[in-house]
Amino acid sequence: MKILILNGPNLNLLGVREKSVYGNRSFEDYYEELKAAFPALELSYFQSNTEGTLIDKLHEAGFGAYKGIIFNAGAYTHTSLAISDAIKAIDTPVVEVHISNVFARDAIRHKSMMAPFCTGSISGFGLESYRLALQYFERLKPKQIGFSV
User: Fold this and answer.
1) Given pLDDT bands bounded at 50, 70 and 90, which one contains residue 100?
2) Buried (b) or exposed (e) across 119-143, using 16+ Cβ within 10 A?
């Protein structure tokens, strides 16, 4: 089963940026750990700081190329109607993830523009938020998310 992990703006700085919030590991290092932990899943990873590029990737992945998308849209989560429209338009289920507990941060981060169009949201577990999302996809029977293997 192919799963795309999609990261938005500033997540290329994990391990460098605000270590007290985001930890001291790069996502690339953690991604290698995820691939080893989920050998039955075919994982792909993409990161961009550009809203239009993220939308293009959602369109590319969202019509059968992948069986699930794990998406940390960063700050675009709270501001981008265009990203929420792209999620609404595609067929592939999307799980929204966040490293930090967005509800323990400034008030603007308490509202997600994309959550209404996602299968679910996971936040506050550090990088383990991605692992929890992968466990969700791994445990689903194919017909539960509208596809056949």
Assistant:
1) confident
2) bebbbebbbebbbebbebbeebeee
H or E segment to which residue 84 belongs? helix 81-89
59 annotated as belonging to a binding site for a ligand: no
Tokens standing for residue 16: 């460098």
Each residue of 112-143: pLDDT tens digit?
889 999 999 999 999 999 999 999 999 985 54
Give SS3 for 45. strand
pTM score: 0.88
Q: Which domains does the chain have, with CATH numbers?
A: 2-144 (3.40.50.9100)
Whole-number Å distance between alpha carbons of 69 and 76 = 16
7 labelled ligand-binding: no
Other beta carbons less than 10 A from residue 107's beta carbon: 8
Could you list the active site residues?
Answer: 22, 98
Residue 100 marked as a ligand binder: yes
